[in-house]
Amino acid sequence: MLQHPKVKRPSVGLLGFSKGGDLCLSMASFLKGITATVVINACVANTIAPLHYKDMIIPNLSSDPGKYKITESGLLNLVDIWNDPLEKSNHRSLIPLEEAQGPFLFIVGMDDYGWKSEFYAQIASERLQAHGKDRPQIIYYPGTGHCIDPPYFPLCRASVHSVLGHPVFYGGEPKAHSRAQVDAWQQIQTFFHKHLNGKKSVKPSKL
């Protein structure tokens, strides 16, 4: 990325959602040249599959598929299947955020049924502070589900999960979620402009 002619050096920022969020956390922790990381409803542990980097392997956070629930509409509710990353048996799956060079912004939907994003953001904050690092910026959005897209995208409350192959419920109330998408987009841009360009403001989102 740093060699790409359209990338402004000397560093880059990362933006990731869901599984992509924990991949960004891992990249920020292990790779140089990353000075700002934004994650949207992400886990602080490696998920889904083991992560291989050089001679290191970070196992994926264990889960208990038997804890899934079915909504009245017949959708899978997976929020309770993920085991606690703070349990001793799952410690190796935790991403060493304290090794990152730059700050973090966590965007959290408080009606997220994908997993416990609010809990994971709090773990990240406590871990960073325990290692003498700055507290991450965390923005909580009530009534907001898992899939926080750019402004004016329709709310995605459910879809067929790309890994499971089954329809999954993601949460979110239309009005609150739509407002959150507009605000989150502004917050993300402001964060990147501040930590990558040294600017403090951006133009508001408009139709």
From TrEMBL:
Q: Which residues form a coiled coil?
A: none
The protein's matches in Pfam families, at most eight in alphabetical order, are given as: BAAT_C
Gene3D superfamilies, A to Z = alpha/beta hydrolase (3.40.50.1820)
Identify the residues that the record assigns to the BAAT/Acyl-CoA thioester hydrolase C-terminal domain, covering every copy: 1-197
Q: Which InterPro entries match?
A: AB_hydrolase_fold, BAAT_C
This chain belongs to the protein called: Acyl-coenzyme A thioesterase 6 isoform X2
